[in-house]
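To the wet lab folks,

You asked to see what we're planning to order before we commit. Fair enough. Below is the target structure as tokens, and below that is the sequence we designed to fit it. If anything looks off to you, flag it before the synthesis order goes out.
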């Protein structure tokens, strides 16, 4: 039963780090929007953190599946699949999902900002869900 507690502690730490990363994305994109940062620097920073985000979220989703928490797995699976999809569908010639040549075209900056805000909201909600699950687990095992 200690494995479940370890899973929830790991989930809290992992989701907390993903939450901080989502805040970093929002701040970096807003700096680009206000012209405090140029497009090349912004896209290099965001693309550098994209692979660690995909790996962290993928490990968490896989751990939830292996420890057989199907509801939590199903909550995490769509975002994990979306992250992998974004990594796999980068057009040829682009530096990554965030490309300096295209970020100001066709409202891509607004789209990236909305996506980052959605990830921020998701990670915030799921953080408190994991916290609730851990507290319920601890209360039930103490009795």
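Sequence we intend to order:
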């Amino acid at each position: 039963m200690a494995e479940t507690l370890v899973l929830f502690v790991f989930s809290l730490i992992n989701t907390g780090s993903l939450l901080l990363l989502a805040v970093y994305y929002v701040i970096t994109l807003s700096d680009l929007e206000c012209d405090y940062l140029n497009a090349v620097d912004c896209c290099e920073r965001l693309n550098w953190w994209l692979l660690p985000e995909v790996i962290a979220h993928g490990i968490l989703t896989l751990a939830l599946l292996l420890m057989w928490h199907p509801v939590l797995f199903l909550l995490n699976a769509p975002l994990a699949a979306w992250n992998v999809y974004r990594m796999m569908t980068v057009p040829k010639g682009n530096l990554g999902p965030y490309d300096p040549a295209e970020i100001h075209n066709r409202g891509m900056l607004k789209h990236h900002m909305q996506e980052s805000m959605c990830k921020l909201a998701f990670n915030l909600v799921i953080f408190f869900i994991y916290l609730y699950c851990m507290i319920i687990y601890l209360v039930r095992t103490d009795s």
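Structural context that might help your review: The CA atoms of residues 39 and 101 lie 8 Å apart. The two ends are 14 Å apart (CA to CA).

Thanks,
Computational group
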